Amino acid sequence: MAVGLDKVKPEAITEEKHLVVEGMDISGHWNRMFEQRVIWDYEVDRLDKVTSLPGGESLGWCYGCGKCTAVCPVDIVGDYSPRKIHRKTQMGIDLFTSPDLWLCTTCMNCLRVCPKEVNMINIMPVVREQAVLEGNVPAELQKAFEDTAKHGNPLGQPQRRRADWVKKAGVPVPILKDLKRPVDILWYVGSYPSYHPRGIDAAGAAARIFNALGIDFGILGIEEKDDGDSQRLAGEKGLFEMLAEENIATFG
């Protein structure tokens, strides 16, 4: 028996034992025909739930070429890609409650190679936003949201310590409140460079470069708050909008 033929239902196979067409003998397996594969018998409600959202439409454009899988950084350490997400929704997985929703880093690698322009940078935030509204958020992420709202950064560090890293920079890092004059460059440092040990090293290195180049710069210090972009990508659009308003007021 031919390889794989044992997996096909016998009633789906038609074959004429003796058949001659225009003088050519195509008897037996030479004229074997198979019924149409059922490729539409999928549960589409879960997929439609995503594509019905403004920004989620492009998930329905996937035709399963698999180019995204080759460049997805999460697939390197797991089993993940937009193609696999599309397939899972066809199989009935609810992305709104699935752990897969939170694995995408929105790095844009998939969009770079996708011939159908399936845009996970739009899809994931809008689905996550609905999940946040419904309370389907991992506890660790929920804590980061709460810390951002309360402390102005996702690490939960006190606002008064936001400029403490300048003491380790090894060069002067002017704080606008103390400088009391305009500068050429306002350096928005960010939360992780202000608090995280590895980020502090990077911030210090950048400060030393700015000083070496003679750049007239300054930072906001304790007046600076998180930009909220990571929270937006994680589905907390309301928190992002609140931070954006506060930052715009500070910058103004």
Number of strands: 6
Distance N terminus to C terminus? 77 Å
What is the general shape?
elongated
> Any idea how many domains?
3
Largest sheet: 2 strands, antiparallel
Percentage of residues assigned to helices: 40-55%
Oligomer: single chain
Mean pLDDT: 91
Order of helices and strands: EEEEHHHHHHHHEHHEHH
The radius of gyration computed from the alpha-carbon positions, rounded to a whole number of angstroms, is 28 Å
Q: Which range does the strand content fall in?
A: 5-15%
> Which class best fits the helix and strand makeup?
mainly alpha
Low-confidence stretches: none
Biggest sheet: strand arrangement = 1-4
Number of helices: 12
Characterization of this structure:
- The chain is mostly helical.
- The chain folds into three domains: 5-34, no CATH class; 45-133, no CATH class; 151-251, no CATH class.
- Helix content is 41%, strand content 6%.
- It has twelve helices and six strands.
- It has helices at residues 45-51, 67-71, 73-77, 82-90, 109-113, 120-133, 139-151, 176-179, 191-195, 197-213, 229-233, 237-251; strands spanning 13-14, 20-21, 24-25, 33-34, 185-187, 217-219.
- The strands form three sheets. A two-stranded antiparallel sheet has the order 1-4. A two-stranded antiparallel sheet has the order 2-3.
- A hairpin with a 2-residue loop joins strand 2 and strand 3 (24-25).
- The relative contact order is 0.09.
- The model has no long low-confidence stretch (mean pLDDT 91).
Helix-strand layout with pairing:
Elements: E1 13-14, E2 20-21, E3 24-25, E4 33-34, H1 45-51, H2 67-71, H3 73-77, H4 82-90, H5 109-113, H6 120-133, H7 139-151, H8 176-179, E5 185-187, H9 191-195, H10 197-213, E6 217-219, H11 229-233, H12 237-251
Parallel strand pairs: 5-6
Antiparallel strand pairs: 1-4, 2-3
